[in-house]
Amino acid sequence: MAGKRKEGRFGPGFLVAAAFIGPGTVTTCSIAGANFGYGLLYALVFAVITTIILQEMTGRLSLASGHDLAESLREFPDRALTKILFIIITISAITIGCAAYEAGNIIGGSIGIEIITSVDQKIWAAVISLIAAAFLASKKYKLIEKFLVGLVFLMSISFLGTAIIIGPDILSILKGFVPSFPDNSIYIALALVGTTVVPYNLFLHSSAVKQKWKSMSDIKLLRKDLVVSILLGGIISGSIVITSAAAFYLKGKQIESGAELAVQLEPMFGTFTNILFGIGFASAGLSSALTAPYAASFATSGVLGWKGEKRKTGFTVVSLTVIAIGLIVSMLGLKPIAVIVFAQVANGLILPVASIFLLIILNKRKRLRGYANKPLNNILAVIVIIIVIILSIFNIQKIF
């Protein structure tokens, strides 16, 4: 299997990019463009750079140690009590993050189908949850997931094509890459970071790297794959901000409902916009609704050291629990867009914790030898962590 994966066109980096191009990204980037024009593009630049730095670290960890991030976290504490507390904190953070993401995925997918059928979004939320649960329980969802990722990719190309067709003012776009802080923008800026730098992707990427490559001689392939894939994801996210700014901000309009998100693709698809956007949005939701529970299961099993049959049973229980939480939240009657954005913010709050743990592990030189973090790696990682913590503090102050 490892040999086949190595020959594949897309590597673990593409999986990371495909995971964060979901309903949350489309919604958050659309809101950023509608409310602030091109003014928050700088946040996406930071998010892309952060993603590359952190994912390179977790990939290098797998290559150098032969253990993925979850397994390494289990071995990190030296004392029994510390290990127990560490496990509880790690599982809680990952479960909360994945559950929040799952709610956004389910609601996002249901919005997509509602756009096409006009049937109540809650009904489709239940249908998507059941489909995701069935696939995860049967363990035959990988082929379907590839198909859905393909549809999401086509939707992403649609945004990129639309961004080119509308011919935006390049100078105004470039100004958006200069950090600025319009009123009430911190919340959305943090959400843009949260929708791109997804904590559970650290676990998925680490596992995928471990399966695809076996030695540090592949580090150049890992980095190339990561940079190309994440840059592509960042360009797609930026295109969504640009198309939304043209459809709403520059015309003095606001996004009032999820169905209005499709408006930004009208320059490219005309009367077929709602149908095509609905299919793409639903596909993004269902694909991510499969990925988040799987990530939570993988992280939990690795941290707890589950093996064999216990691992299989644990995978199913954790996956179904995350889906159940997502379904319950989607049925509470909350505003769909608010839930999706909150999921991104929740991930942005969890990210500092996950990043700090990763940084500590990458500095264990006795275990990683010459592949541990070098001074430049640590400087970049610390800068990233400090900025993320500052954004999180600003967001907490806004909420309370």
Task: Give keywords.
mainly alpha; globular
Plain-language structure description:
The protein has 400 residues and is an all-alpha fold. The protein has a single domain, classed as Up-down Bundle (Amino acid/polyamine transporter I), CATH 1.20.1740. It is 79% helix and 0% strand. It contains 18 helices and no strands. The protein has helices at 2-7, 12-20, 23-36, 41-65, 69-75, 80-117, 121-138, 142-165, 170-175, 186-196, 199-212, 219-247, 266-269, 273-304, 308-330, 336-361, 365-368, 375-399. The longest helix is centred in the first third of the chain and has 38 residues, at 80-117. The protein is globular.
Record the SSE blueprint.
Blueprint: H1 2-7, H2 12-20, H3 23-36, H4 41-65, H5 69-75, H6 80-117, H7 121-138, H8 142-165, H9 170-175, H10 186-196, H11 199-212, H12 219-247, H13 266-269, H14 273-304, H15 308-330, H16 336-361, H17 365-368, H18 375-399
Helix pairs in contact: 2-11, 2-12, 3-10, 3-12, 3-16, 4-10, 4-11, 4-12, 4-16, 4-18, 5-14, 6-7, 6-14, 6-15, 6-16, 7-14, 7-15, 8-12, 8-14, 10-16, 10-18, 11-14, 14-15, 16-18
Q: What is the CATH first-level class name?
A: Mainly Alpha
What's the number of extended β-strand segments? 0
What is the radius of gyration?
20 Å
- Quaternary structure state of the chains depicted: single chain
Strand content: under 5%
From the 3D coordinates, which CATH architecture would you assign? Up-down Bundle
Spans with pLDDT under 50 lasting ≥5 residues? 1-7
For the biggest sheet, the summary is: none
Supply the CATH superfamily name.
Answer: Amino acid/polyamine transporter I
N- to C-terminal distance: 50 Å
Mean pLDDT: 79
Give the CA-based shape.
globular
Task: Please identify the structural class as seen in this structure.
Answer: mainly alpha
Which topology does CATH recognise? Amino acid/polyamine transporter I
Number of domains: 1
Strand/helix succession = HHHHHHHHHHHHHHHHHH
How many helices in DSSP terms? Answer: 18
